[in-house]
Amino acid sequence: MNNNTKHIGLPLLGKQASQFYLETLNALWTNPTACPVATVDVDFERINANLPDKYAALKPLLGYMLEDLVDSGATIYLVPNITLHAALDRLDMPDETRARIAHPFEAGLDVLQAEGIQHITLAGTCHTMQSDQLADYFTARKMKVDFPSPQDIQALDKIRLNVFATGFSQQEKEKMESLLSKYKCVVLACTELSLLNTDRQFIDLARLHIESALRLIQSVT
Questions:
Q1: pTM to 2 decimals?
Q2: Cis peptide before 32 (omega within 30 of 0)
Q3: b/e per residue 143-169 (b: at least 16 CB within 10 A)
Q4: Alpha-carbon distance 169 to 216, whole Å?
């Protein structure tokens, strides 16, 4: 894609997540032409090995990723990994670069506050559901955050890993819905779980993230 063309830069962070983001971008794009998105190759294996919180190792890898996004000429940067944004937010970068990053938590928080929701159940990776790393984004806006039970956390993480390995499964979708149906106002903070949320039963940070990137690219003159 021509670097002078207004487009979204999408780093390839895992097969299932990248495919979900690409398919959703194209499904939501309303113009007759294809969604203006260009993929950027990154060393996902090294990044993934240091998730969720090995920041010292993640810092240079994310620095390289941002350099590649800047070099791609993308107008908006859409990073298809919810957990990774906690590390991205800690990076020192120019304000212009930071302003180009579509942020899943800001998108989700805007929707929750617009709907007057102040109490959520956060579902994601095992680490997300056992730490404050991502919950802090919500508590900083005076929201109460609950997590699933320890037993459900383990079951959800097995579902997530299965989806990470093989993609969508109707069986895994039904398992997730059964586990989470007992909780109120569930917010999904994991792209693999978002893949299973085809009925939009739960608030979905990945989809809201994508929608925010599309609004940003359409607002740029």
A1: 0.93
A2: no
A3: bebebbeeebbebbbebbebbbeeeee
A4: 32
Distance CA 71, CA 220 (A): 19
* List of domains in the chain: 8-103+207-219 (3.40.50.1860), 105-205 (3.40.50.1860)
* Tens of each residue's pLDDT in the chain, 221 residues: 555 578 999 999 989 999 999 999 999 998 777 789 999 999 999 999 999 989 999 999 999 999 999 999 999 999 999 999 999 999 999 999 999 999 999 999 999 999 999 999 999 999 999 999 999 999 999 999 999 999 999 999 999 999 999 999 999 999 999 999 999 999 999 999 999 999 999 999 999 999 999 999 988 76
Nearest to 147 by CA among 167, 161, 127, 162: 127
CA proximity to 202, closest of 217, 219, 169, 180: 180
The DSSP output letter for 199 is T
Run of H or E residues at 72 = none
- Cβ-Cβ contacts under 8 Å for 157 (sequence gap 6 or more): 125, 126, 129
What is the residue type of 163? V
Please give the C-alpha separations between residue 81 and each of 7, 116, 117, 151, in angstroms, as whole numbers: 19, 26, 24, 25
DSSP 185: S
Residue 42, both tokens = 């990154």
